[in-house]
Specification:
Elements: H1 11-17, H2 20-23, H3 26-32, E1 39-43, H4 49-56, E2 60-65, H5 68-76, E3 81-83, E4 95-101, H6 110-120, E5 121-132, H7 138-150, H8 155-158, H9 166-175, E6 178-187, E7 190-192, H10 196-203, H11 205-208, H12 216-231, E8 238-240, E9 243-251
Helix pairs in contact: 7-12
């Protein structure tokens, strides 16, 4: 059964607090190596910033996201963007490539996503993506766990995220019928231009939404207090402990 995060995605909030996500997607976009005339599926397109770049390279792109508000923002850019969960892809051998940036770790179970991606690709089609990898935002998760425990909540059970190691995800790709050309985990400390509390508002709603509303702001501040000695540098800049999993694979037949 598909597990869809309870997170509400606001396109405006995402653009204000998480604009670094598409900005740092250049390596995976380069690995996609789009050729003019290709038909490409963008899985988890968000507001379409990177989708536009794929279209500009000459491809026909169908873009999907589970969040209606960000899909509306992508459509406002003139893109073919549609609302659909990544676990529910219904295409059959239609695409030369599937591209995904910073989205797959929100889609569980991964087996359903990989089956749909494989089915969507033409034989020999490529799957190029970046997602959160093992130990991604580890300090933030520890702080979330510690603070939520004070409110009788289990952060592990609330987590919408899936952050695999390279070895674990390689095995899943191969089991799903892909040939893995490259896969690697890349530590990528990431500056948070608006600080950690707006980041929590944008990305951690599944956790904080479980806290009683009257305690929510206090809990968020307690998380920030725990993280400040670890993630704030001497200039006052918050730097999140991001770890990315990047891969390129092809459909085996």
């Amino acid at each position: 059964m598909a597990e869809v995060a309870r997170q509400y995605w606001s396109a405006q909030r995402y653009a204000e607090t998480a604009h670094f996500v598409p900005a740092l997607g250049a390596p995976v976009l380069e690995s996609l190596a789009t050729s003019p005339g290709e038909r490409i599926l963008d899985l988890g397109c968000g507001d379409g910033v990177l989708t536009e770049k794929i279209v500009a390279a000459g491809a026909t792109v169908v873009a999907f996201d589970a969040a209606p508000d960000t899909v509306a923002a992508a459509r406002a850019r003139g893109l073919d963007a549609r609302v659909m969960a990544g676990q529910n892809l219904t295409f059959d051998r239609e695409f030369d490539a599937v591209f995904s940036n910073a989205a797959l770790h929100w889609m569980r179970p991964p087996e359903a996503v990989l089956a749909g991606v494989r089915r969507s690709l033409k034989p020999g089609g490529r799957f190029v993506a970046e997602m959160g990898g093992h130990n991604n935002t580890a300090a933030i998760i520890v702080a979330l766990s510690a603070v939520l425990a004070r409110y009788g909540l289990d952060a592990h059970r609330l987590s919408p995220w899936y952050f695999p190691s390279a070895a674990a995800y390689r095995k899943k790709l191969e089991s799903a019928g892909f040939i893995v050309e490259e896969i690697t985990v890349v530590p990528r400390p990431t500056a948070l231009p608006t600080g950690v509390e707006p980041w929590l508002d944008t990305f951690a709603e599944d956790f904080l939404g479980a806290v009683p509303e009257s305690d929510r702001l206090r809990a968020r501040a307690e998380i920030a207090d725990l993280l400040r000695p670890v993630l704030m540098d001497e200039t006052g800049t918050w730097i999140a402990d991001y770890v990315r999993l990047r891969f390129r694979a092809t459909r085996a037949e």
